[in-house]
Amino acid sequence: MNSHKRITAKTVRQICGDVSDMWIWRRLNEPESGFPKPVYIGRRRFWREAEILEWLDGQSAQVA
Fold this sequence. Notes:
Elements: E1 6-8, H1 9-15, H2 21-28, E2 39-41, E3 44-48, H3 49-63
Antiparallel strand pairs: 1-3, 2-3
Protein name: Transcriptional regulator, AlpA family
């Protein structure tokens, strides 16, 4: 995995289980969620794939 790979909001939604844009918005506006912040290029949002996967791993560890 390329730790610097940038992914779009669409890809983030798919990785997180086909969630909506509203779900992402809520995570971004809940500081306690720890959801990774995007980088804006123009008007588009991009996330580091490694940060999203790390966040997801942390969520499954909290549930277990």
